[in-house]
Amino acid sequence: MEYTYDSPVGKLLIIYDDDHVTGLYFDKEQTAEHVHNAVIDQCVRELDEYFNRQRTDFDVPVKARGTAFQADVWAALCRIPYGNVVSYGHIAQEIGNPKASRAVGMANNKNPISIIVPCHRVVGANGKMVGYGGGLWRKEWLLAHENNQKP
User: Fold this and answer.
1) Distance between CA 15 and CA 151 in Å, rounded?
2) Each residue of 85-102: pLDDT tens digit?
3) What's the distance, CA 79 to chain centroid?
4) Which of 6, 63, 132, 147 has its CA 20 to 30 A from that of 23?
5) At CA 58, angle to CA 6 and CA 78, rounded to 5?
6) What distance lies between CA 105 and its chain's CA centroid?
7) Over the stretch 31-50, which tens digit does the pLDDT of each residue have?
8) Active-site residue set
């Protein structure tokens, strides 16, 4: 099932099933109305709270499909504290594969559940903004938002 959510960073397409959010994508122009169920109602409520600076962590159940390596990276992303950033190398170290920075970058790029699985909190080794599937302006906006700066 699909639902289009209007956010401060543009339209988001939320994909969900009876029990989980399975995707959250930027720039989806199609309009999709949701069938009310607990998962989508919780997701919309939590996104509203996040964008209103009333939530720093998401509790909505998610289920992303990917390789075991990708799942490890996505789990590590969820452990990055709100408002913080880490490097791809840091994530590689955390998952026990310190030479896998580039592979971490690829897994980050394949993250199907943006914002909730906070891939925007990963930056280059030098602290610079590098690559973001939703566009660097969105990454900068989300990080400024999380740091109580005017996005």
Assistant:
1) 26
2) 999 999 999 999 999 999
3) 12
4) 147
5) 115
6) 14
7) 667 678 999 999 999 999 99
8) 119
